Amino acid sequence: MTSRSDMSDVAPLPLLADRDLSAPLAWRAGRPVSGYRYLLDVQRLAQQLPQQGPVLNLCSDRYAFAVGLGAALSRGHASLLPPDARADTLARLATPGGSTYVLTDDAQLNAPGLHCHLVDLHQEDASESSSEVVGAVPGIAAGAHAVSLLTSGSTGVPQAHAKRWETLVGDVAAAAPRLSALFGRESLAGLTLVATVPVQHSYGLESSALLAMLAGAAFDSSRPFFPADIVAALEAVPRPRALVTTPFHLKTLLLSGIELPQVDFMLSATAPLSPQLAAQAEQALGGPLIEIYGSTETGQIATRHTTGSEVWEMLGDIRVRREDAPGDDGEAAERYIVEGDFVPAPTPMADVLELIDDQRFRLLGRANDLIHVAGRRSSLGHLNYHLNSIPGVQDGAFWIPDEVTDGVVRPVAFVVAPELSSESIISALRERLETVFVPRRVLRVQALPREATGKLTVRTLREFALAQLAGEGETVRLTREVPADHPAFAGHFPGQPLLPGAFILAEVMEALAQVPALAARLGERPSLAAAKFLAPVGPGAQLTISMVPESGPSRGVRFEVHRGDVLAASGRWTAGSESDK
After folding, report:
1. What letter would DSSP give residue 156?
2. In a domain, 346, yes or no
3. Extended beta strands in 466-538, E state
4. I want to staple 526 with a disulfide (CB 3.0 to 4.6 A). Which of 115, 227, 379, 522 is the partner?
């Protein structure tokens, strides 16, 4: 790959790869949109954009998004792609007096502090979409900041991963030959992609809009989510056609009972797919299923034909190597580095791999989801894989509680399985897992709070789990650490600092606020019905706060605060009366 030092000598890279511009680049509501038409729409929108960027491209229509991306690139504006369009997410991205603006196809979008530009694409006379009107395909500077993919971490603060235009072009250039070969064709020309994944997501961007713009395919402009919508979108486009989806969407589609149209191949990403589900999908939909492996940091870097092999093969000239690095406990910890081809810099992966050579590997699980139970090690990904392989389980996820009183982790499983009992699920897991990993509790729920990509984030699952346990009358436990520099210690007391009871109660209230079901039970103005302070709490103390919802008409919540094994405080909150409000 070209180094940064000689980037100024690199010729611009075209917005669209060499292709027949009169052929469809996209399909909107069953109607084809040519490459000429796309370039004309890009030209017109670019003329309307502000002088400065960047732009938040929030268009949900995939074609409108692609036009916005092309127009921004033509003006030299980077496109910011947030994980969602919630008002609080957008507010964090707005800067007072800044130049950031929004492109949207939703006239009702609420974007505080940001100027919104509505992308309104009219179906005009096709005669305007000619080479005479459009002119040459615009070239984009190879080193131009093209997009920043914004992901939400556990804190909810978007983390930006900037991509240059040459990186995106190289990403697709490496993937297209592999996919074409697996598809059994010389190129992807003529193939139409129907994607269930948002185009603002790394995988959704690479495998729909960019795969069409830079590899000769076409894409459907919609983003179907429900099974009937996916079927309708597939039936609205001609063959050859491909379904770009996730394990969650695919499983939901197969369980829907709807008659499914044939596809010529499928792409899946965001989570490993079980061989059983892959085989079911190939039988039901007719085409081979190809999994894509990658990350927001690296882009798509490997593929596998799931029913043919468990081994992943790197794309292009990408290599992976293992190195040892200091772990959190001071011991050496292994990590895996990806480099080469379009990857801008050596990048550590978040997964644990089994290397076969520098271009092939097996995936063992996420590095951050390894768990230890009774001296045994596994991963949440491994447990979830076996949970979701049980016939009758439509969706499921393991969750590890934050804290337990006896020091032994006891996994909890949340399962969508209308026709199975908790006991039958536990029995099936005993046949698949070591005994220590079989959950003592299986809670059957209507749905899991997955994102549009099918992902289930750690924070979202934790909040969901706490709410479910509270609703079941289960004890909910959270841990909190008392800072050594807590301001209350200044006056309580010199030489023997103690945390006053009022501050212990404040810690309990903060813990209650983290459990929506308990907070809703107590209302906006909870009343302290009783409190006992039984042992001192000093600087740096680790507190375990246990909260138990009461079953009586008072709908109160009892609590205990332990400092290690010592009960430091206990009491009870109830909902405040109307006179308190």
Report:
1. -
2. no
3. 476-481, 527-533
4. 522
Beta bridge partners of 336: 322
Reported as a single tens digit per residue, the pLDDT across 97-138 is 678 889 999 888 877 778 888 888 865 544 455 555 567 889
Structure tokens at 138: 């615009």
Structure-block tokens of residue 114: 């940001």
| 457 lies in the same domain as 521 | no
Provide the percentage of residues in the chain whose pLDDT is more than 90.
38
Q: Which residue has the higher pLDDT, 488 or 294?
A: 294
CATH code: domain of residue 450: 3.30.300.30
Structure tokens at 377: 């090690």
Tokens representing residue 31 in the block? 């109607």
In DSSP terms, 563 is beta-bridged to 543, 566
Q: What are phi and psi of 414, to 5 degrees?
A: -110, 125
Residue 400 has what DSSP assignment?
-
88 Cβ neighbours under 8 A, 6+ residues apart: none
Half-sphere exposure of 297 (CA within 13 A, CB side): 11
Distance CA 334, CA 352 (A): 8
Which residue, among 364, 399, 367, 363, has the nearest Cα to 384 in the 3D structure? 399
Tell me, what CATH number does 524's domain have? 3.10.129.10
Q: CB atoms < 10 A from the CB of 579, how many?
A: 5
Residues of the domain holding 554: 476-580
Total tally of structural domains belonging to the chain:
3
Q: Are strands 476-481 and 542-549 parallel, antiparallel or unpaired?
A: antiparallel
Phi first, then psi, for residue 380 (nearest 5°) are -65, -35
